[in-house]
């Protein structure tokens, strides 16, 4: 009797495992999602990639609540981000790069001290014109940091020819993208033709570069010669795991990063939002929701909150770039953001001698 029970139990476990495995390998992305990945210049066939499918299932299963909460907590400024992306002729899917970086937390700070919703490091922030001092940190300025991000991504696209390579470069740096394309182009060339003395020399130089024995210029010279063979390399080829290779074309973090952005973007119109009380999150417009005041002079956010009849915490969330919630003896201009619905005569009267610029376009 006991033996029969054990046999039945074993059969039941195997049966359940088979069902779960079948469900796990079942494709969940469809042709309807193609237009989203194609916005990033990704070829159609990648929609069937098993690793991509697996990543999407993971986020769809485990991240629904954090997904909805991040949209709800940032609903006031997401329209401005969408508007800036549209003004710069960029795919609206880049909104989900910010979600992947910070879940739209305006004060997000990484272990490497990157800050803001776009997670800028200091050197890159300064390179793209963001001001950082003891009173203002424009990495957390919603509008300025978004403009800096569009410039950075457009520069990367100009270098590498596609939005998905721009995203990978945003995560791991331009040097790693050059290295990846050089290696992949050389590998494809060798497969099509044969290894030669010249290709062996190139491979040796690449290995030296990876070990820090030669400078980036040596790699760049090889890239320029290999460049014709780097065109039209499928994304799946660049992200594949190469056996017996300690250093893949792209780091694991960057591979996961791109798949995370794609997954979050595709989740944006799925049923878990459509069939819930949060369905309004599907319709984030590009209409103006907050007013930008360009200010010079002293302010305290606590006073602004009182004058605009809003919670201090809500005002601070829009103005995390104003460190310590106040600015004193400011010699340079900075931005102050207030929701349109909270602007009144008392606030405008108090700010009239501090406003130094009226923008025709609020978000430039």
Task: Write down how many β-strands occur, each being a DSSP E stretch of 2 or more residues.
Answer: 5
Number of domains: 2
- By CATH reckoning, the class of the largest domain would read Mainly Alpha
What is the CA–CA distance across the termini? 78 Å
Rg over C-alpha atoms, rounded to the nearest angstrom: 25 Å
Amount of beta strand: 5-15%
User: Secondary-structure element sequence?
Assistant: HHHHHHHHHHHHHHHEEHHEEHE
CATH topology of the largest domain: Lysozyme
How many helices? 18
What strand order characterises the main sheet? 4-1-5
Q: Average pLDDT across residues? A: 86
Largest sheet: 3 strands, antiparallel
Contiguous runs where pLDDT drops below 50 for at least 5 residues: 1-25
Structural class: mainly alpha
Helix share of residues?
A: 40-55%
Shape: elongated
What CATH architecture of the largest domain do you see?
A: Orthogonal Bundle
Folded structure, characterized:
The chain is mostly helical and 364 residues long. The protein has two domains: 33-285, Lysozyme (Orthogonal Bundle); 290-357, no CATH class. The chain has helices at 2-25, 34-38, 50-62, 64-73, 78-87, 95-102, 122-127, 142-160, 163-172, 174-192, 197-210, 216-226, 235-239, 252-266, 271-274, 301-307, 312-318, 345-351, and strands spanning 290-295, 299-300, 326-327, 334-339, 355-357. A three-stranded antiparallel β-sheet has the order 4-1-5, with no helix packed on it. Helix 11 packs antiparallel against helix 12. The termini are far apart. 32% of the residues are buried. Mean pLDDT is 86; it is low at 1-25.
